[in-house]
Model the fold of this input.
Amino acid sequence: MPRLDTLSLKITTGKRGPNQEPRYEINGFELDFNEVKGSNSPGETLELSGSPQSFPHSLTLIGPEEGHWDIERIDATYHSGGDEPYTIHLGAITLDAETKLSLKYDRPLELLDV
Done:
């Protein structure tokens, strides 16, 4: 993956949500998101943006320190190295203190009609 300038997440929470702001980890370093809008309460949507300005060898969303976070959907948008941003869509998962979600996804290959 080229240098990651900005990572933006739109997360829809399911039945259980944590009472803490999420954090992410890049190359083993935990970071706070630069911008947080919305809520991760049950049934709510949370929009997060982080600017790591780094080449990710690993990139994860960290689970809550206590309790569980039921995530219904994540839309992750990557702004890398001056290229056009790209978005991936992830389905349901439950995070907790022992669980991290890998967010390291390379740009999907371009599809061509033949």
About this structure: The chain is about 0% helix and 50% strand. The CA atoms of residues 68 and 96 lie 5 Å apart. The chain has one domain: 4-102.
